[in-house]
Design goal:
- The structure is a single chain.
- This protein is α/β, with parallel strands linked by helices.
- It has a single domain, classed as NAD(P)-binding Rossmann-like Domain (Rossmann fold).
- Helices cover 48% and strands 17% of the residues.
- Helix 5 links the parallel strand 5 and strand 6.
- Helix 3 runs parallel beside helix 4.
- The protein starts with 9 loop residues before the first strand and ends in a 6-residue tail after the last helix.
Length: 259
């Protein structure tokens, strides 16, 4: 079993320039964790560092696109040169675009998988050897409740998150006796810039700050496994995943899918 979490850890968060990543950086910084932040948007990333500092936290940043393996590796090396070995990785960076049918928007699908899946894999590649050597660490991937069911108009996004779930599950089983906790986080709708503002289409939506507090507790407790929230949305999605396609089409609305 992984060792008990210490009071503070060296944490790297990808996708830290906005949304859950930014809110989590502020939350963890306030809890005393030493932070390394990665995102592709330099100006917004600097703003996150400033917001962490305003709450009394300490963070440094490195700019990289998580889908660019060499650039991401360099970013991790920069952060670890300053902060020391990463003890907690939060692979949070994500991308979503509607899945269109005629024609298929292949470039968007490729980017979705490159960021959402390979971005997680590349991030883990950068830190796992050090964690295995130390016999200590936690790998956290921010997935989505969308992983539980393929939805019309969101095929690529749902599939990419399902891939993350399966990848992390395999790692969790394999690493269970190596001192490395593996945690997959499945949020429902979170109020960020990429979330639709239609309240009917985003039931039980929570704020990025609420999501960050839940994830921070998972990190502080070194909780290994799958964590889904909010509970009502998790229950609804689990039910939706068991329904026949004809029912899902009526509930979700295949007519609302992208042309």
């Amino acid at each position: 079993m992984p060792p008990a979490a210490s009071s503070t850890s060296t944490v790297v968060i990808t996708g830290a320039s906005s949304g859950i990543g930014r809110a989590l950086a502020i939350e963890l910084g306030a809890r005393g964790h030493l932070l390394g932040l990665i995102a592709r948007r330099e100006r917004e990333l600097r703003e996150t560092v400033e917001l962490v500092a305003a709450r009394g936290g300490t963070a440094i940043a490195a700019t990289a696109d998580v889908g660019d393996r060499p650039a991401l590796r360099d970013a991790f090396q920069t952060l670890e040169s300053a902060n020391g070995p990463t003890r907690v990785l939060v692979a949070n960076a994500g991308f979503g675009a509607p899945t269109r049918l005629n024609p298929l928007n292949i470039e968007d699908v490729e980017r979705t998988f490159r960021v959402n899946v390979m971005g997680v894999v590349y991030s883990i590649e950068a830190v796992l050897p050090g964690m295995l050597q130390a016999g200590d660490g936690q790998l956290v991937a921010i997935s989505s409740l969308a992983a539980l069911k393929g939805l019309p108009g969101e095929s690529a996004y749902c599939a990419s998150k399902a891939a993350v779930n399966a990848y992390m599950e395999g790692l969790r089983i394999e690493l269970r006796s190596r001192g490395v906790a593996v945690t997959t986080v499945l949020p429902g709708f979170v109020d960020t810039a990429i979330t639709p503002m239609d309240a009917a289409a985003t039931p039980f939506m929570i704020s990025a700050e609420t999501a960050a507090r839940k994830i921070a507790r998972v990190i502080d407790r070194r909780k290994s496994g799958v964590v889904a929230f909010p509970r009502r949305m998790a229950a609804l999605t689990t039910l939706l995943a068991r329904l026949p396609d004809s029912v899902v089409a009526r509930v979700v609305g295949s007519e609302n899918a992208n042309p």
